[in-house]
Amino acid sequence: MDIKEKLNQYGRPLAVALIVIAAIVGISLASNDDNVDSDQNDDQAMTSEMQDNETASADEASDEAVNEEIGSEPMAGPVEVESTDATYKATAREGDNQTVMVRQIVSDYASDEGVTLNAEQRLYAETNLVNELGRNDVIDAGFVAELSKDTVAEIVTQAGELSEAEQDLWARYL
Asked: What was the pLDDT predicted at 16?
């Protein structure tokens, strides 16, 4: 049997089979397109809803942040530091943190003792004095940071004796 005879004998069933396969493939693709469009519409709706929620949350968060912000700028002016013969005591205000409080203690000490520190030396002194307090990420207004004058003097002296290489290392954190 040659090809012409085979096509005459099996041509119709072959054509019908090809039409059925094409129809199945077409329906399948159309169904997938509907699902993709539906999924895309769902994704777009979800994305839009998420953006609306994020915008609303961001607005609420910024409103709350204005009222109660962690790590906010300290109140205007220096922290009040009480100096006795043996200690420095600084009392936290709303928005203050341990570093702000210790910074004022170092400034008061330097002023009282006529000591001059550059930024790297100040950073060394402040960091080590905060470590002496026992780091606390959250403090409330009214918290009192108390450091002995001997401890402050010792650490400020160490800061003043930092080598150029050590100061370069501290400069990375400025």
From this structure: 78
pLDDT digits (tens, 9 = 90+) for 104-135: 999 999 999 999 999 999 999 999 999 999 87
Rounded alpha-carbon distances, angstroms, from residue 161 to 105, 116, 173: 19, 12, 19
pTM of the model: 0.57
* Among the listed residues 152, 151, 146, the one whose alpha carbon sits nearest the alpha carbon of residue 122: 152
* Type of residue found at 108: D
- Mean pLDDT (whole number) for 145-155: 97
**DSSP, residue by residue, 8-25:** HHHHHHHHHHHHHHHHHH
CA distances to 45, 54, 56, 122, 140 from 63, in Å = 27, 14, 11, 35, 20
Shortest CA distance to 101 belongs to which of 130, 134, 138?
A: 130
Same domain, 63 and 141: no
The answer on 144 and 63 residing in a single domain is no
Domain containing residue 137: 81-171
Q: Which has the closest alpha carbon to 22: 10, 34, 30?
A: 30
Say what the pLDDT of residue 42 is: 58
Q: What is the pLDDT of residue 58?
A: 52
End position of a domain, from candidates 24, 46, 68: 68
